[in-house]
Amino acid sequence: MNSSPAGTPSPQPSRANGNINLGPSANPNAQPTDFDFLKVIGKGNYGKVLLAKRKSDGAFYAVKVLQKKSILKKKEQSHIMAERSVLLKNVRHPFLVGLRYSFQTPEKLYFVLDYVNGGELFFHLQRERRFLEPRARFYAAEVASAIGYLHSLNIIYRDLKPENILLDCQGHVVLTDFGLCKEGVEPEDTTSTFCGTPEYLAPEVLRKEPYDRAVDWWCLGAVLYEMLHGLPPFYSQDVSQMYENILHQPLQIPGGRTVAACDLLQSLLHKDQRQRLGSKADFVA
């Protein structure tokens, strides 16, 4: 991840006495024995996410447990701290998973997160193959609200995909996994780190050009297309062919969609980021 623009430095973790500075989210009195860890609900590069029941009040949380050794070995401290920083800001938005508090042991970091129990959007989409337009529109509107909120904080999300969209018990979306977020990006700023998931990469990222927050609106278009049609818009099993499709092939929209849906997809999946829907006014509720 690139360093932040001048004036907005990324938080630098301290390693005094083997500790990492967890900043304002730290709860020095918390410890692993406060929880009954029930099952693994997610895995990542540096640890796993566990469903946990807090013994004091019976409340359920998703606890992200990260191995310090892995983080330090791969020099990912700034990545982890950036994710923590974004999580702290999320508690004020209903469609973003929030960090309640964090703590550590000599070997591990613990992030106590909201538990979202409706499963990944990816799971529901795989099971049902595609969604009817009203349902897809509902999810897309809530995701757009979440992305717009992050942008209002000068954060680019950069990894929107069905696996990172959870559903809560009432059927609302909750965006999760902020490891690729870039903080401190003003409306006119750009960044250039090549990152994301192949199926959802915007053309400007593939061209390795400086890009702005419009990449998130491309990703929203790709996710909306997948919800409606079962596959991302330029998908190929051959990744190099898929990249070629993203860069050069016109968008093909199968029949049976409303004019409004087609117009929205065309506008979000515009290959020129300057002409893409959201590139000028961003998210306007």
UniProtKB/TrEMBL annotation:
InterPro entries per UniProt: Kinase-like_dom_sf, Prot_kinase_dom, Protein_kinase_ATP_BS, Ser/Thr_kinase_AS
SMART domains reported in the protein's UniProt record: S_TKc
Domain of life: Eukaryota
GO molecular function, one term: protein serine/threonine kinase activity
Keywords: ATP-binding, Kinase, Nucleotide-binding, Phosphoprotein, Serine/threonine-protein kinase, Transferase
Pfam family, one: Pkinase
Chain positions recorded as ATP binding sites: K73
Protein kinase domain span: 35-285
Similarity field: Belongs to the protein kinase superfamily.
PANTHER family hit by this protein: RIBOSOMAL PROTEIN S6 KINASE
Name of this protein: Serum/glucocorticoid regulated kinase 2
